[in-house]
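RETRY 2/3 - previous attempt timed out on the joint model. Re-submitting the same 292-residue input unchanged.
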Amino acid sequence: MRIDGCSALVTGAASGLGLATARSLAAAGAAVVLLDLPGSPGEEAAAALGGRARFVAGDVTRAEDVQAAVDAATALGPLRIVVNCAGIAPGQRTVGRDGPLPLEDFDRVIRINLAGTFNVIRLAAAAIQATDPVGAAGTGADAGAGSGSSAAESSVSNPGGPDGIPAPSAPAGIPERGVIINTASVAAFDGQIGQAAYAASKGGVAAMTLPLAREFAPSLIRVVAIAPGIFDTPLLQGLPESVRESLAASVPHPARLGDPADFAALVRHIVENPMLNGDTIRLDGAIRMPPR
Ligand SMILES: NC(=O)c1ccc[n+]([C@@H]2O[C@H](COP(=O)([O-])OP(=O)(O)OC[C@H]3O[C@@H](n4cnc5c(N)ncnc54)[C@H](O)[C@@H]3O)[C@@H](O)[C@H]2O)c1
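RETRY 2/3 succeeded.
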């Protein structure tokens, strides 16, 4: 699906992976709504992206806040791209020095990372379902729009490059309504000591990807999750340089921390590649996290 001409909603967009994603989608021609907590630097971030970006202050766990962001995105154009980046990553042992982890602490991580992501998906998917499909005529973001387009009606030749292979960004007659991209974590698969709640929340994000993709397939909406390894975001920027260096060296190749731009590049590819659906993609330089 083409990015230009779409409206996009990015959560957690005032910082880190969400901010890089909002920048990248705006540069590719999308109107972008940045949803982040009140008090976050979201207003400045949106202003830096120019006239087709808007900040909506809100909490992903609150239905009315998310609906306001969905409405703001819909007002800017047909909402087709949703990227869930809002999240928290506290390290908390299940039984620590002060005894068992309070259940409220576990609940909070699940509530923001998993239920918050689902809250955005359910409200945004309803808005995406109300749009006309695109890509049927193979030109422009809204070309060929109109309910009732079918793959058969819309088949179009895509000459592609000199090797005859169509570029994934060139619609090859596949009608689509939108793409929902969620942020899991490698902790979903190799969670460390102290990450029981975080790993459970990200495991939930990974696990709901397929049932959501299956449910939304008839609506021509794809759902994909990204499981980042260790990325250089404000989440890590507070750590001492020596710790950052040792984390970077633990990545097999490339032996560096992930750059938020690497994440944003994958988001763009997922939007543009119509065959990516229903799975969680690790973006981690081959790292497998040790127990601690
Ligand atoms: N940085 C990494 O190494 C890494 C690795 C794996 C997964 N992740 C995941 O990527 C996502 C983004 O992380 P990041 O590194 O960019 O962190 P970050 O702290 O830089 O950004 C997260 C943003 O989410 C916002 N946020 C938090 N709770 C929210 C809520 N309830 N409602 C709305 N916004 C809220 C924060 O204000 C912040 O701007 C998170 O889900 C995180 O778990 C990060």
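The chain has one domain: 7-89+100-155+168-283. Closing ticket.
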